[in-house]
Amino acid sequence: MLDILSKKHIIAKEGFNRWLIAPAALGIHLCIGSVYAWSLFNPALIKRLGVVTSAADDWTLKSVVWIFTVAIVFLGLSAAVGGKWLEKVGPRMVGTVSAICWGGGFVVGGIGILSGQLWLLYLGYGVIGGCGLGLGYVSPVGTLIRWFPDRRGMATGIAIMGFGGGAMIAKFMIEPFIKLFYEAPKYLGAVTDVELITEGGRRLVEEAGQLREIVIVGANDLAGMYAPGPEGVYLVGTGNVGVAQAFFTLGAIYFVIMMCAAFGYRVPREGWKPEGWELPAEDKQKSMITQHHVHIDEALKTPQFYQLWIVLCFNVTAGIGVLGVAKTMMSEIFGTTLPNIADAAFASTYVLMISLFNMIGRIAWASASDYLGRKTTYWIFFSLGIILYCSIPYTAHQVSINPSVVWLVYFYAATMLIFTMYGGGFATIPAYLADIFGTKFVGGIHGRLLTAWASAGVFGPLAITSLREISVKNAINDLIEKIDPAVFQVKFGAGIDQLEQLVAAKTVTINKLMEITPSGTVDPTSGLYNTTMYLMATVLFVALIMNATMRPVDAKHHMKE
Amino acid sequence: MFNEIIEKIDQLLGPTIIESLTNNYTEVFIFIILCSVYVCSTLWLYGDAATRDMGTKGVVLPLVFVIAAALALMMGVYAVIVWPIGYIGWFILRPKSSHVITE
Prior knowledge:
Distance between the termini of chain B: 55 Å
CATH class of the largest domain in chain A: Mainly Alpha
Largest sheet of chain B: none
Number of strands of chain B: 0
Order of helices and strands of chain B: HHHHH
Radius of gyration of chain B: 17 Å
Low-confidence stretches of chain B: none
Helix content of chain B: 55-70%
Shape of chain B: flat
Mean pLDDT of chain A: 89
CATH topology of the largest domain in chain A: Growth Hormone, Chain: A
Number of helices of chain B: 5
Shape of chain A: globular
Oligomer: heterodimer
Structural class of chain B: mainly alpha
Order of helices and strands of chain A: HHHHHHHEEEEEHHHHHHHHHHHH
């Protein structure tokens, strides 16, 4: 039975059209790429019981946002471990297991949501689903490179573009499915019409002789409701937010698509090459493209692997750095200085454009690398990236002192270019690996290199959060020095000596302090992201050095005939 | 009982990495570099064990490093003390020869 999944069973027959591999690879990557749309589940997950708004026992946002990070960490770990297995069993087996894990992860996660067991959601989506992500991500890479030795960058770019576009497609499925399965809870009436009891911080009503928990929907909560409903009192546990059923449905859809894609995989027979294409002669060949092969285990003992690890990791870290703050910068800096242009609709389009340019970058830069060379492509990413990252603080400062649309256009263009390079970095790395280590174990080596992504997925956000906190703390301390302590006391009802507690309780913020600072004080908000941008430029500089010092692998690491 | 043990371990392992990162830009940069060195050295160990035919046994120490990293993130940074100790132990105890890989 398992034989039909084996490598020997999927060797392509004579005359097989190699372009048929591309849609199979794209299909798998489009499904697993939906992981980037995780944030769309968050609003529903935190209203599992309350449905219209969060109830007392509902999960907090803080407790569910880490599921995405767990999934990315398991993506890296499973890709690292599964890479070697991929080389042994072939892409169809790995693709099938990936489909089972990704689809099954949704089902286990859905059971966790239904039963209210958060650990099951972590296990299902984060761990099992994360393993599906890693295996699915690496499954087509080696195969595509072997089918397209003449256009390695373009081939892997097509597949990895799917990962970037998966979230865009998922956006059009997740919300409609949640709405489809959504059932409004029992409405008890307006707040004034219902007799409310408060016990242990919970709001309750007496119904049929029993105290039952309720939630109150105010004017501000209406926008967050999946189906329109009146303001007032709703009974907890009587509706259905629909997210568990959406999980089951999505799991089934992804499973079917990924299984079809996995069965579309074919590997070329040993020694196959495209018609009319010859491997460039040794003397004409670009020095960075090897004709030898390095074993997957031996690759881990070469400096080139770690140079590429740093290249990928720091490119992703820098990308996460700007991804994490771009939308906030747009609304906080440009939204306040150019409110007529940078409104809520503009910010939404901006977020959509981020996904689009990330996706375009994957295919465009990876294809361009076939002509430019991999080393040159990354050299462009890093040198141009450093300039763009360093210029963003200047742009933010300029727009805060001289609101002009020119700065908005520059910021928009600079960040979009950064996002193309972020995506391009992902899509070009498999071809770079094939150039350096040969094509024989490229899928497995790529899997191990994906630990760089998992690492960046953990410490990138940690670094951003930490830098932001440092910047806010420094900005508040600078503003406090300019404020009369008596005015502060009147405004916040406490002295400056209690500043730390007031900041922790979000009673004191930069915006609130700006209301009592002497006129002429410059708002420090635009400078809050400066350190993040400079740090990202610094990590890109390290990656630039690693790429610039890249040399072919020493012959002692090559596999012997 | 279980919670008490976890609490004791938590106290023993000191502040988490996030709690330790509050001072400045340079500290965050050093944190990123050290994390990278940590992961790369763990991968190197994994590869070194594989080329020395360690089989499943070769996965144990890298796995310990991964667990230590998770503990450092969630409970306390002192967990990564197993990293230098593990490395010293590895260089003393590892099989002396690595195999030649043939096509």
